Amino acid sequence: MRRSSSNKNIEKKRNLFKQLFNTNNIKSVLRAFVTEYETPKIVAIHSWSIAITCRIVQILILLYTILYVLGYQKGYQQVDQSIISSVILKVKGIGTGYDEKPVTSIMDNADYIIPSQENSALFIMTNYIRTDQQRAKCTEGITVDGAKCLSNDNCMKDSDTIKRNGRWTGICRKSKNSSSIVDNSSSLSMGLCELEGWCPVENDLVRPEAIRDVLNFTIFIKNFIEFPKFNITRSNILRDATYSKYCIWNSLTDDLCPIFRVKNILEIVETDADERQKMLAYGGVIRIKIDWNCNLDRPLSECIPKYTLGRLDSRYRVEQFSFGFNFRFASHWKYYNKTYYQSYRTLTKAFGLRFIITVTGQAGKFNFLTLTLNIGSMIGVLGLATFICDMVALNCGQKGNVYRREKFQTVDLRKRIEQLRRSSENEKERENEKTDRFSEDDRQPLAKIYPFTILPKYKDDDV
Ligand SMILES: Nc1ncnc2c1ncn2[C@@H]1O[C@H](COP(=O)(O)OP(=O)(O)OP(=O)(O)O)[C@@H](O)[C@H]1O
Q1: Core-most of 1, 138, 366, 449, by most CB within 10 Å?
Q2: 225 and 101, same structural domain?
Q3: Range of 385's domain?
Q4: Which stretch is the leader sequence (predicted)?
Q5: To the nearest whole number, what is the mean pLDDT of the chain?
């Protein structure tokens, strides 16, 4: 039983395969391919409201493509966004710092630029806390959690060492200075835990004044760019040497000058004078964006940079947890004290302005392929108008049903097959009738007139 059913299945599949790959079918498909041209049937609806809707949508699409895509977005240009850039920064200006008031120290760019060279960034130290230290034992900083003590028991050696300035020895020192700390609750004189490390520890409660004259410092930005697709290189030094040497950038009058004054930058990025003072005291982060937007269909001299400035860090009034920009660094030296070399260092906590320079840009040049592609997509989008109008005509309004009936043709396959069968039968009958009417004498002249006509054959008994 099972075997016979599987045989039937195989037979069915074979028949289906034969039907699909019937040579007659393939022939007729191939014939149709070279002899038939298909074109969609178009239904014309006489309705001014639908026609106007369609025209409005088409005009909108045309306007969008011509004005926005081709005009504003320059859809006829090939675009290169892979800009290659190099930025070199140099600061000039003499400042006055206070190590310990009233002792001042004159500083030049080698002192306040840390590090001396960075990639597309710059740090100008505007304030600092400097501590000369040596390896020794001393008391912990008063601001460190758990540093205050009453006895040695309070100075646990190994617990939470993250915020300590050295390795705690486990001793509570009640030195002259620390005995002045009074615990109000117990009225006992308190000490500070002793540490082993760099002494004395930094005291960041006493913050000196910001370096004077920072606002007059100037920053020279030297920027080279390349658009590799078009092999175009440009530099931001666009005017002659005398101009570039003495100019100061101004967004309105000197927007091509590559030298910026710190004061002008601060005034642009921060309008509040008090905030500006805080930026000098505690530091801040400023971005300078150089944007190259070049239309290479126009003269190359019009390919110029545009500078935009902004503040990146949060404002002091807003930030609660950590404000400004600072970091520590140390310079080390050794001193021979007649018996051995003693290690010393100067620890600096530097506050200052960090400038981040970003370079962006794109270049565009006429390209025929891009233009044709955009026009092609516009023609494609025009089809949207027909789609929208079809939706409106067929689904909205009272005549929707009528339009739908005219637009869509429903084919009842069985009826259609029956009709075709009947019509082919009728045709056969008519042909037979014609054949009956022909005589042998009629055949000869017809054959002369229509040499390629295939005349119906007479049966012997007809003659
Ligand atoms: N931050 C700046 N402010 C004003 N002028 C500057 C600044 N940096 C450089 N310059 C001047 O711009 C010109 C070009 O600078 P560049 O660094 O290419 O030359 P330089 O001779 O190495 O500069 P310098 O030795 O003066 O630092 C020089 O005249 C230089 O003095």
Answers
A1: 138
A2: yes
A3: 8-33+47-73+370-407
A4: none
A5: 84
Burial class (CB within 10 angstroms; exposed 0-12, middle 13-18, buried 19+) of 424:
exposed
Residues 86 and 67 in one domain: no
Quick check: is 27 in a domain? Answer: yes
Pair 131, 274 in one domain: yes
Atom 28 of ligand 1 has which residue's CA nearest to it?
Answer: 245
Count the domains in the chain. 2
| Residue 244 alpha carbon to ligand 1 centre in Å | 10
> What is the mean predicted confidence (pLDDT) over 377-400?
84
Q: Which residues line ligand 1 (CB under 6 A)?
A: 90-92, 218-220, 245, 259
Mark whether 69 and 86 lie in a shared domain: no
Q: Whose CA is nearest to atom 19 of ligand 1?
A: 90
Q: Which of 92-101, 239-248, 330-339 has the lowest mean pLDDT?
A: 92-101
Asked, for residue 217, whether it belongs to a domain, the answer is yes
Predicted complex ipTM:
0.95
pLDDT per residue as tens digits for the range 264-310? 999 999 999 999 999 999 999 999 999 999 999 999 999 999 999 99
pLDDT at 109 over 70: yes
C-alpha angle 53-55-56 in degrees, rounded to nearest 5: 65
457 domain-assigned: no
Shared domain for 211 and 241, answered yes or no, is yes
Q: How far apart are CA 434 and CA 71, in angstroms?
A: 70
Distance 358 CA to ligand 1 centre (A): 21
Nearest CA to ligand 1 atom 11: 245
* Inter-residue contact 315 to 275 (CB < 8 Å): yes
Structure tokens at 424: 């082919």
In this structure, which amino acid lies at residue 313? Answer: D
For residue 91, which atom of ligand 1 is closest to its CA? Answer: 1
Return d(Cα 463, Cα 438) in angstroms, integer. Answer: 10
